[in-house]
DNA sequence: CCTGATTTATGCAAGAATGCATGGATTGGA
DNA sequence: TCCAATCCATGCATTCTTGCATAAATCAGG
């Protein structure tokens, strides 16, 4: 243990680093000031101050608005790490705070319940021991207004004005099948080669079939010898070699028991929304779970565990 | 790109996080105040402020001195991440600063020149494009006073009062040999089994032999059929299967062409010092290289690339 | 070309953080 | 047991930062 560390290099004003970070991310001093609930001149002075303190020009004053210099973008990555650590610190702190105790129910589709939520819940248990989590696994659009869940992960924008939503990003799904079935099927180079393939169906049958045909997959009802209303069952049936299934790209790619039928096609894109009661957002423990979900979901969906 | 990010969780006072970090690392408010060139009451108030801001008690006031609470230690890891990022930011900034341009010569032993310095130089080239680096590879104790090098990595504490030194940590070396030679040698379970082994010698012969015998290795001059004054040549001779060589544990463990002769024995421990002119420490570009070395060396020596 | 909206920069008063000096408390050793 | 050293907490004058109001500058669109 080195007792006498040299702190001179961390002796600059960290708040100015924060000013630099959110100014760069938001794109302008005014927007950053709004985001931080501060006055715009304050942020401008902080940015100028850190520029002088570090001896580096971070932004080029080009007309209205600022533009990152090359040095600024190189320094921004470190400011981002600081920001992420600050966010983690803040989240973990509100978790440790004895004020947040109680129960939070998260609703998600079946596949998300087994694919993304376990990690999130594990992390939540670490940073907020006082919170108990309930996972409501359902393919139905869970009714938040009836308190079946406090937070829901959905694939559509919420339309109810009482609900507040946050767009996390886009997830994508594609065709997967077990290696054994792919061997039986023979080589597949285009979607047209799937005319005689077996598919494992799930959910609303006609809607599903229509979507596939819209993508140029030449299939009919005869291509569905197996079928389940449960998405997890559908997934396991595909894994058992009974045909081609559909699931999130990141989930299938991470599963050694499944391979993509085609490397890139087809690509089903759908948005991922976090939804909650507008009033519940102010509840500290729901707010904590919300923030942790918003922090972790993008990484998980992009398949970077 | 999500345009409207939520910055509320990074909206706390980052300087207070810094106060928390160095107070925890230094162990007391007074020591932290000295390290940061601040007054002790200031730091005390900042720590109290962040405790109230986060709603978490970070320190237990126990007599004289503070003691981290459990929540505090859990939050400290995030503060450490912030601090490391802040240090990287600061270093990269002084590197980008156009003030630091010129030449810096680093002296190191032959093995360190090929094992640790390449990574450091690569990193330096990234964060400080204006600095050119010269690696002075020499087993001799390079004379800093004659300007053969600006910074030296040594294994002894500098005794000259004009030189300033910083202890990086301890490195350790042990016996390595190629798989082919280990097979030829047969099973080895204790140091006594090495009485008939071939060693590759290097450096001062008698001193080397004495040190080995002091470790309880039963060898004589007859055990040294091969020998080189160059440490890198000695290393490559061992890699070529000509006998047992000695080198840093982390370096040998990372080399697929070499295995340890014995899993833990013998363990040669030696300190690693960074040395420079006292006056040169104030030179910004030398200071930058010094700081980067101090930051990277511990990780490299412990074999965590 | 001109207008309106939006941005960055500056002046000034209020507020907050800082440093110094000091008091109170605890530990370790003579 | 007492003393010296060390540490944390508090009061107060000073310095620094912040926020508001406003000016100057730039871009988009009619």
From TrEMBL, chains A, B:
GO terms for molecular function: DNA-binding transcription factor activity; sequence-specific DNA binding. One of its GO terms (biological process) is DNA-templated transcription. CDD domains: PBP2_LTTR_substrate (cd05466). It holds the Pfam family HTH_1. Keywords: DNA-binding, Transcription, Transcription regulation. Residues 12-69 form the HTH lysR-type domain. Belongs to the LysR transcriptional regulatory family. This is HTH-type transcriptional regulator CatM. It comes from Pelagimonas varians. The lineage of its organism: Bacteria, Pseudomonadati, Pseudomonadota, Alphaproteobacteria, Rhodobacterales. The gene is catM_2.
